[in-house]
């Protein structure tokens, strides 16, 4: 009799179930499509709010570009504007002289970032339900000879939405920006040197060494193997772990084909460079790089061949170029087999190469530049492969 | 529930089976069931409910689909429009002639489909044809039929642009309204407008800092012309001597600025000498280029200072040359010794202007050329080019050159290089080439104040100084 009882309303229950599923699915679809629309609309509103802020920025820069700095409208104090309509939204703005100018030792930075004619502009732009706060530091280069004068933004940042259009809030933000610009100026020369090293680096681990961090995991240089594996691999290096100075080194066992070579290995180093020896005459210039020439630790120095008189070209040919060739060999050798005796020999050679190259005199600017490039490469390789422990070179 | 099947002599339908459910014979149960036939009604009812409920459910699905399509179109419109807006903002920064170019070219203002390269903002999007590395308008394709899905997605999208200028308290802006319209799934036209405001850049010459504050400037004049009248204002001194304050100020400003130039010469020389040494001492190419740029910028600053003074003094010099009346200096007049020596050196400012202009140009060119070989970042290099261009224009006009050959050469090279790489720069170069096709056109398009001031100063300096110094 239970069957009889269950038969009553079974179809309706099934239908209701189907309906429930359909309604739920439809509702979910609708909800997700509404949500997608909402997302797109939110992005749209945000972009519009940015466009409102940009409109405010254009207004200010047009005004700044139209009159001499000494006649600027905010010369007597911060100028605030509230709820100005633009681009379908509204913005409030504050512009004031930059509280403190920064003194840079670098003349070019002083002329640009240290220009005394600077203003801080904060714009809080709103479109529909989106609000963005934008901050610019503007420079008006009055001492420029351009036929059209333009206010140049030297710094821009999206400020937190909590920042109000208020002189105190802008002062606080401005202080942070000033510190940031100052730090940028102070780091500039070091960064330029670093950038130069990175430009010449060809492997990710070289770059990471230059930047002073060690990735947590093995870095895979995805180079297509010689001979071709038939599989297309990315030709750009791939870093598996997130990069950061605080990452710890996880020791990775070398694969069998790159394990340390036996002691009896043969080193593919160019002949005649095994010892530093005295610097040939004509290549000497003790004053060229004073206080930085490391003492030659070679105990066999006395048995080195007698010094000969060389002109610069010979000096480069005989001293600098072979060392560069050796450097290339050593870089690949050390990176493949870092603990081998051959690598140790390379490291020693690198030290010697630096020592004798810094003592090389270059009569013309171009030649000196060539030697310095060689020095940069050698130094780069040394710092990278000697774990940055050489205080003379790597500090 | 227990089902029992078995042969029992009783027939259920044509089969001779016995079916028991929980011990009750099925046949008996069916016969005794009071709701026999209700399942049909029930089914009908269920189908009715299902059918009736299906309509809103289908509607739900349908509206969800509609909204998805609407979202997709809307998202595309926002993305495409924002791309154009960003292009325009950047282009206005790089190319100061952009608003005029947009206005003068009807292809920018007409509402055109973005496919098939019809809209100039989407003329070429794919670097499909050699030379690779350059997207060339008219050579490389826009959104063509070969990009099937993209073409299908945006085939109804059209972009139009309108603009209007607005004057501000100082300066002006151009408001561009981008209007993207498209046909949606209901075959209705939707549109999404976006306003982009572009700053227009002005031209002016600042006044020398020595005269920003009139009171302070008057005190400087008083100190120079009337050193013995300490504690009195210039106005009081002029009143007490019966001098015309305007004439005293004119002469005084000229003398004060001449002294400033004279004093600054050694400072300029020292600054540039230091930078020059730094250039020659630098061995790394990047460092050398940077130092060259610094030196060029320093020369530019010096040149700009001279130009500011020349511009400010052009009118007073002209006045002194034409209508200097020593009697208006009152009695007793300021001692000639107080201003004679500085005025005699006033023409130095013009010499300094020309020499620093040439030097600035020379060093910018050197840095630019060196950076071509040594790989300077593209943006600074473009900036260096813009400096070279501006200085060349100024030098051509300030020296009254007979032709614009050099200007045309560098612009032609630049245009050729940028064509296919950055259409905005190429367009800028073409505009500049048309402006610089001859000296007369270049002069016509250059800020007149500067040129007039340089010419006035040049024409009147000697006679003005002579007139002042030869006055009894």
Which helices and strands appear, and what pairs or packs with what?
The complex is a heterodimer of chains A (395) and B (472).
Chain A: H1 2-7, H2 10-64, E1 79-86, E2 89-97, H3 107-112, E3 118-127, E4 130-139, E5 152-159, H4 167-200, H5 204-211, E6 219-220, E7 238-239, H6 312-336, H7 341-358, H8 365-385, H9 391-394
Antiparallel strand pairs in A: 1-2, 2-3, 3-4, 4-5, 6-7
Helix pairs in contact in A: 6-7, 6-8, 7-8
Chain B: E1 3-6, E2 18-21, E3 24-25, H1 26-32, H2 38-94, H3 98-104, H4 106-109, E4 112-113, H5 148-154, E5 158-167, E6 172-183, E7 189-199, H6 214-225, H7 234-241, H8 245-281, H9 285-323, H10 340-344, H11 348-374, H12 378-398, H13 405-418, H14 423-435, H15 439-445, H16 448-470
Antiparallel strand pairs in B: 1-2, 2-3, 4-5, 5-6, 6-7
Helix pairs in contact in B: 6-8, 8-9, 9-11, 9-16, 11-12, 12-13, 13-14
Molecular structure report:
The complex is a heterodimer of chains A (395) and B (472). Chain A is an alpha+beta fold and 395 residues long. Chain A is 45% helix and 12% strand. In chain A, the strands form 2 sheets. Chain A has a 5-stranded antiparallel beta sheet. A two-stranded antiparallel ribbon of chain A has the order 6-7. In chain A, a hairpin with a 2-residue loop joins strand 3 (118-127) and strand 4 (130-139). In chain A, helix 6 (312-336) runs antiparallel to helix 7 and helix 7 (341-358) runs antiparallel to helix 8. The longest helix of chain A has 55 residues, at 10-64. Chain A is flat, with a radius of gyration of 33 Å. Mean pLDDT of chain A is 66; it is low at 1-5, 222-310 and 387-395. In chain B, strand 6 (172-183) and strand 7 form a beta hairpin. Chain B has 2 domains: 66-199, no CATH class; 213-403 and 438-469, no CATH class. Chain B is elongated and about 145 Å long. Mean pLDDT of chain B is 83; it is low at 8-16. In chain B, helix 8 runs antiparallel to helix 9 and helix 11 (348-374) packs antiparallel against helix 12 (378-398). Chain B has a 4-stranded antiparallel beta sheet with strand order 4-5-6-7.
């Amino acid at each position: 009799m239970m069957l009889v009882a269950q038969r009553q309303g079974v179809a309706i229950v099934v239908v209701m179930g189907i309906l429930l599923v359909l309604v739920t699915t439809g509702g979910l679809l609708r909800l997700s499509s509404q949500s997608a629309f909402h997302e797109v609309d939110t992005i749209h509103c945000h972009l519009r709010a940015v466009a409102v802020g940009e409109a405010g920025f254009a207004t200010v820069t047009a005004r700044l570009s139209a009159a001499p700095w000494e006649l600027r409208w905010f010369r007597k104090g911060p100028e605030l504007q509230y709820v100005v309509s633009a681009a379908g939204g509204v913005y409030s703005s504050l512009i004031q002289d930059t509280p403190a100018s920064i003194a840079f030792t670098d003349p070019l930075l002083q002329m640009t970032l240290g220009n005394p004619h600077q203003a801080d502009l904060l714009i809080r732009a709103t479109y529909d339900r989106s609000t963005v706060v934008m901050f610019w530091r503007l420079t008006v280069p009055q001492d420029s000879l351009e036929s059209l004068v333009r206010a140049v933004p030297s710094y821009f940042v999206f400020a937190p939405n909590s920042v109000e259009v208020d002189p105190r809030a802008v002062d606080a933000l401005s202080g942070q920006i000033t510190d940031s610009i100052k730090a940028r100026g102070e780091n500039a020369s070091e960064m330029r040197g670093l950038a130069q090293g990175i430009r010449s680096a060809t492997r990710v681990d070289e770059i990471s060494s230059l930047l002073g961090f060690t990735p947590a995991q093995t870095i895979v240089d995805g180079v297509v193997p010689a001979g071709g594996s038939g599989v297309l691999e990315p030709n750009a290096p791939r870093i598996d772990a997130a990069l950061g100075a605080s990452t710890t080194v996880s020791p990775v066992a070398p694969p069998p084909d790159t394990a340390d070579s036996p002691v009896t290995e043969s080193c593919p180093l160019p002949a005649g460079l095994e010892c530093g020896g005295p610097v040939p005459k004509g290549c000497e210039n003790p004053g060229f790089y004073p206080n930085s020439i490391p003492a030659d630790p070679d105990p066999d120095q006395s048995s080195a061949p007698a010094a000969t008189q060389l002109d610069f070209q010979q000096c480069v040919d005989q001293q600098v170029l072979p060392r560069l060739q050796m450097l290339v060999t050593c870089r690949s050798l050390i990176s493949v087999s870092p603990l081998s005796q051959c690598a140790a020999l390379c490291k020693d050679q690198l030290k010697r190469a630096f020592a004798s190259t810094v003592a090389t005199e270059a009569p013309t600017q171009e030649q000196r530049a060539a030697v310095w490039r060689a020095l940069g490469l050698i130094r780069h390789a040394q710092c990278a492969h000697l774990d940055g422990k050489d205080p003379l070179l790597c500090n | 529930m227990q089902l029992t099947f078995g042969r029992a002599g009783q027939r259920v339908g044509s089969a001779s089976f016995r079916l028991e459910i929980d011990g009750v014979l099925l046949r008996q149960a069916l016969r005794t069931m009071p709701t026999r036939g209700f399942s049909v009604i029930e089914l009908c009812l269920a189908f009715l409910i299902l059918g009736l409920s299906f309509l809103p459910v289908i509607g739900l699905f349908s509206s969800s689909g509609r909204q998805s399509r609407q979202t997709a179109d809307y998202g595309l419109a926002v993305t495409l429009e924002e791309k154009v807006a960003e292009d325009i903002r950047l282009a206005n920064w790089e190319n100061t002639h952009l608003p005029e170019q947009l206005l003068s070219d009807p292809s920018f203002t007409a509402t055109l489909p973005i496919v098939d390269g019809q809209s100039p903002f989407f003329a070429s999007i794919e670097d499909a044809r050699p030379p690779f590395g350059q997207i060339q308008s008219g050579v490389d394709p826009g959104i063509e039929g070969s990009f099937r899905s993209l073409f299908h997605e945006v085939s109804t999208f059209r972009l139009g642009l309108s603009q209007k200028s607005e004057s501000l308290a100082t300066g002006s802006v151009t408001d561009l309204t981008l209007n993207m319209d498209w046909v949606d799934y209901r075959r209705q036209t939707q549109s999404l407008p976006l306003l982009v405001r572009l700053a227009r850049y002005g031209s002016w010459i600042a006044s020398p800092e020595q005269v920003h504050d009139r009171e302070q400037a008057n005190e400087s004049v008083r100190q120079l012309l009337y050193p013995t009248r300490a504690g009195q204002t210039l106005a009081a001194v002029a009143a007490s001597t019966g001098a015309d304050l305007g004439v005293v100020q004119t002469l005084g400003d000229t003398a004060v600025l001449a002294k400033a130039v004279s004093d600054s010469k050694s400072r300029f020389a020292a600054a540039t000498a230091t930078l020059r040494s730094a250039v020659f001492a630098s061995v790394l190419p990047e460092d050398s280029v940077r130092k060259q740029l610094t030196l060029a910028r320093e020369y530019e600053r010096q040149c700009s200072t001279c130009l500011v003074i020349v511009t400010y003094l052009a009118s007073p010099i002209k006045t002194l040359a034409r209508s200097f009346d020593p009697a208006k200096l009152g009695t007793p007049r300021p001692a000639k010794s107080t201003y004679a020596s500085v005025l005699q050196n006033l023409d130095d400012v013009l010499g300094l202007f020309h020499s620093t202009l040439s030097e600035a140009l020379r060093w910018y060119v050197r840095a630019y050329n060196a950076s071509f070989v040594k790989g300077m970042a593209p943006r600074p290099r473009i900036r260096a080019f813009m400096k070279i261009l501006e200085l060349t224009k100024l030098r051509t006009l300030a020296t009254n050159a007979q032709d614009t050959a050099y200007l045309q050469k560098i612009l032609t090279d630049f245009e050729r290089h940028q064509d296919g790489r950055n259409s905005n720069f190429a367009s800028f170069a073409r505009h500049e080439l048309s402006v610089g096709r001859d000296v007369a056109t270049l002069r016509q398009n250059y800020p007149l104040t500067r040129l007039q001031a340089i010419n006035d100063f040049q024409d009147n300096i000697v006679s003005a100084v002579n007139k002042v110094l030869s006055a009894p």
